[in-house]
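Re: How this chain folds, sequence and tokenised backbone to follow
How to read it: Take the token row as a discrete description of the fold.
Start of record: The labelled sequence and token lines come straight after this line.
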Amino acid sequence: MTDTRAARPAASPPPGAPRILVVDDEREIRELIGRALVAAGFHADLAAGGAAGLEMVARRDYGLIVLDLVMPDLDGRAVLARLQAIRNVPAVLVLSCMDDVATRVSCLELGARDYLTKPFSLAEFLARVRARLRDDSRQPAETIRAGDLILDVWRLMADIGNGPVSLTKLEFLLLRELAEHLGRPLPTEELLASISGLNFDPGSNVVDMCVRRLRSKLGFGLIKTVRGAGYQLTC
């Protein structure tokens, strides 16, 4: 059952302001974020758990969802997985006490746009909210083409002439970044920063892992390792 007390709108900013859904089972954090969003000029709806959050998404359009991971009724990763069935899924900012790389990567691959760990600065949180809303305001093309490569933005698929291949969110983001810089090698650090929006350790092997998987799916020759310079799309 939906917690209607916790799920009511926090206030009524000016019409036309982005509406943001906060899904967190901790009442103090949920209400703190709601007040901060309203003070910053956004509409804010609050949900006390994953199931309540999904019910609200089914009834109303949101520009952004702020999502906790560890919740007793339905955890955040399950919510992310169910959101992928929505055609125009809202951007999701995960807000969690879990700070390990594996959790961050799994959330990205389930469709999250950003990840911020608790405890957090409200100033940084609001900056990330604005950045994610700006990202979504740039309507992307349905497809991206680079040489023989065609990327399907909505279905997260790649085709180099042998038929479409499904990609994870992280694989798609990395391949898109390489496609947008066709002919130029990109350093691992630049790829890491551009595909995630997260604070991965510079020594993380997330990029190398994604490149290996993309080569396995699309052919080893698609992405070239340029010694001392990073990775380059060769199509």
Summary: The first helix runs from residue 4 to 7. The two ends are 52 Å apart (CA to CA).
